[in-house]
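dumping this here before i forget
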Amino acid sequence: MPTMKEIAVTKRDAAIWRAGVGLGAALVLTAAHAATTAAAVPQIFAPGVISGAQDEGAAAFTPDGDTVVFARGEGQRSTLFVSHRVGGAWSRPRVAPFSGRWRDLDPAMAPDGSFLLFVSNRPIVVGGAPLDALGTDGKRYVGRGMNLWRVDRHGDGWGAPVRLPDAINTSTMTFAPSVAGDGSVYFDARDPADGVIRLYRAQYRDGDYLPPVRVALGEAGAKIRDAAVAPDESFIVFSIVPAGSRAPLRLAIAFRERGGWSAPIDLGDRVNDAGYAMGSQLGADRRSVYFYSARREAHAPGAAWNNGSDNLWSVSLAPWLDAHRAAASP
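structure:
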């Protein structure tokens, strides 16, 4: 039976209900990786401009790294904002032209920057009602559904949002997209068979999506959320709670191995503080990850962005990527 946390779409609520309960074994952190992660320290992203007094969510970058789309909101509201980097500084965020009316969140940019995916409760048909969520208890929660939508980029402008087909939007709780280089989409969705939220991949082929396939990451029973896949699908960063644990979601990375994925490698305590770390999206360099967390920093106790709300952070993945490459070298 779901709690209100399971159907809320605020980022703070999501941090609780996505974690789930009744989870398993510890994450893998090899000595080789542990020895290389000392320099991997998260940095607040654009404090006072993008990371502010409200809750910020996932951030999606254009390939040149000079435009970012991110979610911001409070309570039950969430809106997508756009900011541009000019002269090395980020501009004051403005509401994206396709957002502002419905509850929009979880933006994910295609690797070539041609389109953006995002999550919304907006009506499926023009003039309809906001999307409701169907809880695991069979109850309907008005206006709290989540489906994936696409909006194309045209130069510096945006097209009209289009809902992705039912092949992907198989439930009213479909969220956290990530786009691979071939157009395939990774996303979280509730399994209609048992109500459990799982990670899926929908292959893009010949202009259409094939039926989604479950992605096996970690041990059975582990809760996987908010995956960000490399364009070539060589690695994937995600939030995880091992089976049997009630701990907050932690960031981990896995690498492609023989058609599957390696055991998850925890990014360590310097990245994963005492709270949750969620909303993974790769930076434009493909060697860093952006995520949101309510962590605080001691050096800025009075700053508005340091008030315990969700803010955006980034950390280099170079220690893990380089260690993996070195281990794979003959």
